[in-house]
Amino acid sequence: MSSPTSTALAEIKLDPDRWLNILGAWLLALMWILPLIYAIWTAIHPTEYSATFDLSAPLTFENFERAWAAAPFARYFLNTVLLVSSILAAQLVLCTLAAFAFARFEFPGKNFLFVLVLMQLLVMPDILIVENYRSMAKLGLIDTITAIGLPYMASGFGIFLLRQTFKTVPIELEEAARVEGANLLQILWKVYVPLAVPVYLAYGLVSVSHHWNNYLWPLIITNSEETRPLTVGLSIFASVDQGVDWSLINAATLMTSAPLLVAFLLFQRQFVQSFMRSGIK
Amino acid sequence: MLQNRMWLYGWLLVSPALILLFAFTHYPTIATLWSSFFTTPKGCREASFVGLENYQRLLEDDVFWQVLGNNSIYAIGTIPLSILLALSMALWVNGKIQGRAFLRMAYFTPTVLPLIAVANIWMFFYTPGFGLIDSIQGAFGLPSQNWLGSPDTVLYAVMAVAIWKEAGFFMIFYLAALQALPPSLHEAGRIEGAGRWYMFWKITFPLLMPTTLFVSINAVINSFRLIDHIFVMTNGGPDNASSLLLFYIYETAFRFWDTAYGATLTAVLLVILGAVAIGQFYFMDRKVHYQ
């Protein structure tokens, strides 16, 4: 934050409209950040300070240690990492192949199939829980990490995003590669993929944060410690007789969101730009 | 010959993704409609065809109507407000304002936090007698209130969380749109001596219309889709006062294991989303022309 110069200060004093805007913006920002600040406050102070905001309160990491010991969070972390990385890997491969075909191939039924792909932007697997559960039961996949990820691996959004990107690649580049004797997959890998790296990054960030935070479907499809992701683990931890030990619950809450939060704070610009890029239609 | 090879490659490339899409999006959509005409299979008893019986039950189900009403209030209450806030945030962050980086970070933070986790944090704010909101009210001499325990306030309490969670996310789309606007428009307006409000309503706002539409559609879908905080904060209670459609579907199908009725409820949700899609096409036709 740059310190305002004297002329800027004079301007603020002169312009009540601008002054009100700054006040509004800051008030809203404080309201938006307050829950997080509060969670951090209770998590790093002993329980008895969770409702009294005394700056001299002693700092402690004990809440984190107790929370970590009270539930198998290490296992939940492992499950979540496995889940988001397998979803992302599958999405990248499947969406790249499909997007390439939709962007650069002509084949019968192409438009119809593309409409089917776009349908998923509206009807997401998130709401088809009843029938997807039944399918998973038939496949014998209940309570597996595969079952949590499977409905999300072919992403309509990802196909759409990459198709738009591939369409902007100059066709001359592809022809040049073809002249040099590259086959289809080589063209895709050497020409299209490198040019789409920023989009992949954007999509990857959105996908990881979405699936890290996903709750309802994992809650339904898992029922053991070995498969539960962090979100489900956290909700069980917070509901099972922790009483009103807010320090403990908030420590666990912060712990489970920490990797995303820290990544976000470190790479703020990239995060915001990624979300921006993925939102441009 | 070459063309046939092109067809084959095209199909081969799209097939893995489309098979999965079909298996977990299209098939369940059709199966939902199909199951809604049958009974729930129990043990060795197969599902039997009952025609519109499930829909009959739906019409007579008071909880369903209550939940649908709740979801309407939820959508009407959260969508315009979060869009308005998102737009304000984007305008602030896009301009030259003191502490821009901090403001952007503060607005966007709720987006990266899991809804289930922030629900835990908000729970504390609402705790009667002890929570933050009550403490503030107490300081002004107002009586203590059980926000999540009273049917009159519980829905608004969970709506507040949704607005808080979503506004920063929608801000991003407005920010992207604002940065894509040609600066010459505003310069022209300034030369003409147009006031800030005038410029916003006559230039910026109309140009942001496609974004507003896009964000609105997303907001409508999210108001039916994102229900994680209900689980932590209220469990739909008290007396279903904070239950939303998808939560009711979950309860019906996975707490009472009445999957046929769960499918019937899902069918209603699909119809609602279909209506949103049709509305989108209708609006797109009219609004996109002067882009």
Give a description of the structure.
The complex is a heterodimer of chains A (281) and B (291). Chain A is mostly helical. Chain A folds into two domains: 33 residues, no CATH class; 213 residues, MetI-like fold (Orthogonal Bundle). In chain A, α3 crosses α14, α5 packs across α8 and α9 packs antiparallel against α10. Chain A is globular and about 70 Å long. The mean pLDDT of chain A is 85. Chain B starts with a helix and ends with a helix. Chain B has a single domain, classed as MetI-like (MetI-like fold). The mean pLDDT of chain B is 86. Chain B contains 13 helices and no strands. Chain B is flat. Chain B is mostly helical and 291 residues long. In chain B, α1 crosses α13. At the A-B interface, α2, α4, α5, α6 and α11 of A face α1, α3, α4, α5 and α7 of B.
Topology:
The complex is a heterodimer of chains A (281) and B (291).
Chain A: H1 6-14, H2 16-43, H3 62-70, H4 73-104, H5 110-122, H6 129-139, H7 145-149, H8 156-167, H9 171-179, H10 184-195, H11 197-213, H12 216-221, H13 230-239, H14 246-266, H15 268-279
Helix pairs in contact in A: 2-14, 3-14, 4-8, 4-11, 4-13, 5-8, 9-10, 11-15, 13-14
Chain B: H1 2-35, H2 53-60, H3 62-94, H4 100-112, H5 115-126, H6 132-139, H7 154-180, H8 183-191, H9 196-207, H10 209-225, H11 228-233, H12 245-255, H13 259-287
Helix pairs in contact in B: 1-13, 3-4, 3-7, 3-10, 4-7, 7-10, 10-13, 12-13
